[in-house]
Amino acid sequence: MNFNNILLEEQGDIAVITINRPKKLNALNKETIMELHRAFREASENESVKVIIVTGAGEKAFVAGADISEFADFSVEQGTNLAANGHKELFDFVENLKTPVIAAVNGFALGGGLELAMACHFRVASDNAKMGLPEVSLGVIPGYGGTQRLPQLIGKGRAMELIMTAGMIDAQTAHNYGLVNHVTKQEELLAFCVKIATRIAQNSGVAISSAIRAVNANFKDGVNGFDIEIEEFGKCFGTQDFAEGTSAFLEKRKADFPGK
Questions:
Q1: Catalytic annotation present for 77
Q2: Which of 50, 56, 113, 211 could form a disulfide linkage to 201, CB 3.0–4.6 angstroms apart?
Q3: Residue tagged active-site, from 31, 115, 187, 229
């Protein structure tokens, strides 16, 4: 599949999606969002891909935000549709993928960029990363999940302050807040993420998909996460991965999961 604004590369059982608009600091325009949707869908539907890593091209930015020029003159209805379509096509789509997604945050992750990183299942940042939601400085609020996912990750008070001040935090502060899991040197970022992805890929992809659904259920209104956990736990007993995993454990050998 050909793309204008992103790169999709497979490294064994790991897919790396790179947002490739360095001259625009990898800003998210409509075309890029749709290409990301296609790339994530393609990678997740590929049975050989066990983990997806998403990052930005160059050393300056993961994603420096949305492309403001595309919506500066939007009406209320158009703005509402912009947010709704973004959730559907990318941000909620990534969060609910069956394949684990790691955000490799290199440089600026602002506005829609931070919202994309937060939609991923977890985040690793380079030591030069800067993160923030500056939307209120433009007279708008975060519209791609920022007001929801940021409080879930760092707490209501810190999220309120970061959103209201339109400020940025550095990688170490983000780590202290729990927004990112690890901080590495920029030149080591992708290799570090690949190392984690390799460990993930050794486990049951079926079980990991079930775990993603169960964890996400805890953050959905009107859904009892414990009920989803029980349901997904039970489903695991009917999988080939469970049969292989338990057999390997009892036979004291390394499991070779079929992914079914």
A1: no
A2: 50
A3: 115
Q: How does DSSP assign the chain, residue by residue?
A: ---SSEEEEEETTEEEEEE--GGGTT-B-HHHHHHHHHHHHHHHH-TT--EEEEEESSSSEEE--B-GGGTTT--HHHHHHHHHHHIIIIIHHHHT-SS-EEEEE-SEEETHHHHHHHHSSEEEEETT-EEE--GGGGT----SSHHHHHHHHH-HHHHHHHHHHT-EEEHHHHHHHTS-SEEE-GGGHHHHHHHHHHHHHTS-HHHHHHHHHHHHHTTSTT--HHHHHHHHHHHHTTSHHHHHHHHHHHTTS-------
Domain boundaries, the chain: 6-201, 205-250
According to the model, what pLDDT value does residue 69 have?
A: 81
pLDDT at site 66: 84
Instruction: Return the pLDDT at 72.
Output: 84
From 135, 161, 244, 251, the catalytic residue: 135
> What is the tens place of the pLDDT at every residue in 136-170?
999 999 999 999 999 999 999 999 999 999 999 99
Respond yes or no: is residue 135 known to be catalytic: yes
In words, the CATH class of domain 6-201 is alpha beta
